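Hi R.,

Here are the chain sequences for the assembly we discussed:
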Amino acid sequence: MRTTKKAKILRLHFGESDRYKGKPLYEAIVNRCLELKIAGATVFRGLEGFGETAEIHRHHLIRKDQPIVVTIVDTAENLARLIPEVEEMMDTGMIATSDVEYMRIERSPAAGS
Amino acid sequence: MLQKGTAKKVTIFVNEDTQHHFGSLCDSILTFLLHKGVSGATATRAMAGFGAHQVMHTTKIEVLTEHLPIRIEFIETAAKVDELMPTLYDMVTDGVIEVQDTQVVKVASKERPSPPKGPHTETRGTARLMRIYMGESDKWQGEPLYEAIVKRLRLMDIAGATVYRGILGYGIKGHTHKSGRLGFSHDLPVMISIVDTDEKLAKAVNEIESMMQDGIIVLSDVDVIRLVHSRPAVESSHAND
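And here is the predicted structure of the full complex:
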């Protein structure tokens, strides 16, 4: 097993209908991560959920408001740069961080098994 | 019930017409194994063969048909085989008994439900959570990588794995995974999450690492609260083939 590095995972929870300057909030956050050269970001859509506004997020016929989770793994310093930016963009939602170890796997396609 | 891991495979060669206490030896051996609670035994009739008497038994000549060889096979733990062997040794008056080491990979039983448990048991403790990030279009020997990984984890008896498909993301490949205008895309981000003990995950990491081309494996410590419900095994769909 190759050695792991210490890092942080950041999870942002909000709704799919949340917007930032006309664009879906999750798209805006991913674009901001790219600008800030964050290692990576992945957006997941949940099936159903509820948060602090006690409003159930689910798939409506006309309005999509399922829960969204964005996960980002990077160093503590990079996440410290990102968190204030994201905080400003998010209206309601939750930001959670935890300690993780990670290993990057990078192989050129030619060297594949 | 036979467990996964090392075991012994016993093969007994006898003649179809060898007698034992006014019955066929083959039947006597199978009855004996059944009464001793052996998890399974199979007798197969051969097409042709010869033994110590140096006479070819074959289905082609009618006179010799009744002497056809029969092979009885069963797999059991070393302790159980040791317990059975004296009697088998005594029973097989004409034939060969052979024992070899074997590796049991899977024991699946559809009919027998798991032993009944309480209303629910709760286990608490620390464990490790592993998240593996990859692309949906990543392949391993022609099949989707996430499927190959889940299959491999199941073979390794990992407690459980869940595959999530993201709707947007970027990472090691440098390009954005995004669904197209009609919502169809075959390269969305995929994440597999696994919770198990540190030792089992360390083994799993080694296997997964060799299967992945690029991606990221993230490990963290978690507290586990596990609920096990006393649902009959027939209802749960884990017995599918």
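Chain A touches chain B through 33 residues (CB under 8 Å). The mean pLDDT of chain A is 84.

Let me know if anything looks off.

Best,
T.
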